[in-house]
Amino acid sequence: MSRENFDYLFKIVLVGDAEVGKTSLTTRFAYGTFTDQYISTLGVDFVVKTLALNGHVIKLQVWDTAGQERYAGIRPIYYRGAKGAVLVFDLTRKQSFLNVEKWVEQVQRYASEGIPMVLVGNKLDLVDSYEVTSSDIEDMTTEKGLVYYETSAKENQGVNETFRKITELILQREIDRKQSVLTESK
Ligand code: GDP
Ligand code: MG
Question: With 0-12 CB in 10 A as exposed, 13-18 as middle and 19+ as buried, what is 145?
Fold first, then answer.
């Protein structure tokens, strides 16, 4: 029988409007590849990747889907047990940024109220087409207390940093929670 060597298993969900780059970010992170072709995600997929962080081995299950609106029925399955969320918008599409608020609500409703989230502005490489300004982003991160990263799945910028950050936030929360359970039971 094989023994799996990890200290923690975290489920992370990617959320955001269709075509912001959720699948591209997931694929880049897990396999180091990118395709310009649009591959519509049907239903739910997840990839698994193991990270070493602060002396712990962490197995990440990264869930990626599209059309959550269309398949409202899968929402509870998608979010169940998620320990963290990556909120993705497209820097070249203002509407995808405006919709972040809606995604935050959905995460809080279906996953859990206080789970860590990281905000991601993707398509950093398309500088000439930006529709979202840094002051728009600053307002949102201040208001919602979100950590923010900019990424290009295409040019592999910020992708690993984003996934490491969300993992770090989850790990910290898990450790804090364990600590408070220990303190309470004294
Ligand atoms: P999803 O619907 O959120 O999963 O989005 P996809 O990952 O399928 O990406 C939608 C489209 O945007 C595809 O054509 C991708 O090739 C493209 N795309 C994704 N990320 C980037 C990026 O960082 N830069 C550029 N230029 N295109 C991207
Ligand atoms: Mg997709």
Answer: exposed
Percent over 70 (pLDDT), the chain: 90
H helix or E strand, kind and range, residue 122: strand 117-122
Q: pTM (2 decimals)? A: 0.92
49-106 pLDDT, tens digit each? 999 999 999 999 999 875 555 677 778 888 999 999 999 999 999 999 999 999 999 9
Residues enclosing ligand 1, CB less than 6 A? 18-24, 36, 38-39, 41, 66, 122-123, 125-126, 152-154
* Whether pLDDT at 171 is above 70: yes
Ligand nearest to the CA of 159: 1
Amino acid letter at 37? Q
Q: Name the residue with the closest Cα to ligand 1, atom 24.
A: 123
CA distance 2 to 21: 35
Burial of 73 (0-12, 13-18, 19+ CB in 10 A): exposed
Domain 3-185 has CATH 3.30.870.10: no
Give the orientation angle of helix 159-184 with respect to helix 22-31, to 10 degrees: 90
